[in-house]
Amino acid sequence: QVQLVESGGGSVQAGGSLKLSCAVFGYIFCTYDMSWYRQAPGMEREFVSAITNGSPKYADSVKGRFTISQDNAKKTVYLQMNSLKPEDTAMYYCKSVSCANTWGRGTQVTVSP
User: Fold this and answer.
1) Beta-bridge partners for 107
2) How far apart are CA 95 and CA 26, in angstroms?
């Protein structure tokens, strides 16, 4: 059984940075295909970024500001978020696509103007 635990969320002002972490407790192959999603209040969950066998992918809304990376030794995936905007405010979730689309419980990111 795999478990994903997100951390690193918080409150920042616009223009600030945060680095989210998603620790994977389970098989190493669970980190091969990982995604970050976010969900703002009253909105649908939306794709943010993914890393598949080391290849990153980004939503247009975060391209150039967010960077996804992973440390296989730590079985952890990161999301470095720079130049944050108020519209980035949401609960951020990671998902292991390679392990039955298992979701974490999320970490809150709040960006004030």
Assistant:
1) 92
2) 13
